[in-house]
Write a structure and sequence with these properties.
It is a single chain. By secondary structure, the chain is α/β, with parallel strands linked by helices. It has a single domain, classed as Alpha/Beta hydrolase fold, catalytic domain (Rossmann fold), CATH 3.40.50. Helix content is 38%, strand content 15%. The protein is built from 6 helices and 4 strands. A 4-stranded parallel sheet has the order 1-2-3-4, sandwiched between helices. 30% of the residues are buried.
């Protein structure tokens, strides 16, 4: 079944540019967007070039416990291996996190892994957007709130900006 959603996107080429496709998802959907990009990179994108991803408060985990976690899990679907990140063909990633989310640290760590990969290979953009004082999924429950509107605006800006000619001008990361 891999590739079916991307085949549908490719069929819309009369209405959109299949060379500028972005995948996006919230929470577990962020994990799904990431793994869809991995599959497209590994198996071919069926007429769609994935330029980037917007991963919002993504659900990822890992083998070692972080301060905010009570359990651990080293499943590669929840803790992507470095070689999987290196297999991605998209060159732009935005990870959005929120201050009061137990998944915040994992999102920041994932962003740093993208940053490290792009720094080693000399190409790509890794951007972190953090919403202070908010809980997981806040923008879905209160879409008209000022912080929700700022978050959505940051997604639109990220997607609509042309790819930068030089990495140093666009690389952002969170320590």
């Amino acid at each position: 079944m891999h590739g079916l959603p991307l085949k549908w996107v490719a069929s819309l080429a009369d209405y959109a540019d299949p060379a500028r496709t972005f995948l996006a998802g919230d929470s577990a959907g962020g994990n799904i967007a990431y793994h869809t990009a991995v599959r497209a990179s590994q198996y071919g994108s069926v007429g769609v070039d994935i330029e980037g991803m917007v991963i919002v408060q993504p659900y990822f985990w890992g083998p070692e416990r972080l301060r905010s976690e009570e359990a651990s899990n080293d499943d590669p679907r929840l803790n992507p291996p470095d070689e999987e990140i290196a297999s991605l063909t998209c060159q732009r990633v935005l990870v959005a996190v929120v201050e009061k989310d137990t998944l915040r640290e994992r999102g920041c760590r994932l962003l740093n892994r993208f940053h490290d990969y792009y720094a080693r290979t000399g190409g790509g953009e890794a951007t972190l957007v953090e919403s202070g004082g908010e809980d997981h999924g806040f923008h879905l429950y209160s879409p008209l709130r000022a912080t929700s509107r700022r978050l959505m605006s940051s997604f639109a800006h990220f997607i609509n900006q042309p790819p930068a000619p030089e990495l140093d001008d666009v690389l952002h990361w969170h320590e």
